[in-house]
Amino acid sequence: MTDEHFYNDLDATCDQVWQRLGRGAADRRSGFHTVQLASIGLDGTPRVRTVVLRGVDRAARQLRVHTDRRSPKFAELAERPPVEVCAYDPRSKIQIRVRGRADLATAEAADAPWAATQPGSRACYRAPAAPGAPVDDPRLLDPAPAPPADAEAGREHFSVVLVTLAHIDWLYLAARGHRRACFEWHEGRWRGAWLAP
Ligand SMILES: Cc1cc2nc3c(=O)[nH]c(=O)nc-3n(C[C@H](O)[C@H](O)[C@H](O)COP(=O)(O)O)c2cc1C
Prior knowledge:
Elements: H1 10-26, E1 34-40, E2 46-52, E3 55-57, E4 62-68, H2 72-79, E5 82-89, E6 94-104, H3 111-115, H4 119-126, E7 158-172, E8 179-186, E9 189-195
Antiparallel strand pairs: 1-2, 1-5, 3-4, 4-7, 5-6, 6-7, 7-8, 8-9
Flavin mononucleotide binds next to β2, β4 and α2.
């Protein structure tokens, strides 16, 4: 796909950010389907991990990810909401790096995302041990061959994290000249500027 429509255009570049993130959430083959979510550990040191981008809401400036409330990141995000999210799509040669604050959605707000979750994705929430807990024998945690009769099993561990963006950093690698731009949320709009790559 040609880059002419955004190459030297800040507004079009901002549109590209949201379009590509939106496609990332909708299409598992997109380079932006998984992203790196960085947070601050309870001891003040960095933590970063891969998560699936589950939803994007441009009007609300939000990214949605799902996690197990028993995982360490849940307590970390509750305590220290500032996060950075980064992803690089090698096919388009675009890196999107965003900063914002993470909010843990209420149980009610997680109902619709849970209802839309595939049966296979629910298996990890049914696991009897918390993510990161030591186990004597890993085979004991393998999913049962048949899904449980209760399709709601694991619901109590499912949580939704909403990341509201305040800063976007876009980097496009192009042989004829890289392009880097940043966008700050300021007085109700994204204020863009070019940066040296
Ligand atoms: C491709 C891939 C996708 C993942 N998606 C998620 C996800 O959507 N949510 C999640 O909590 N963990 C996901 N994980 C696991 C996390 O990277 C991480 O190992 C786990 O959540 C524990 O993180 P924590 O100890 O920082 O809480 C994924 C891992 C990989 C490799």
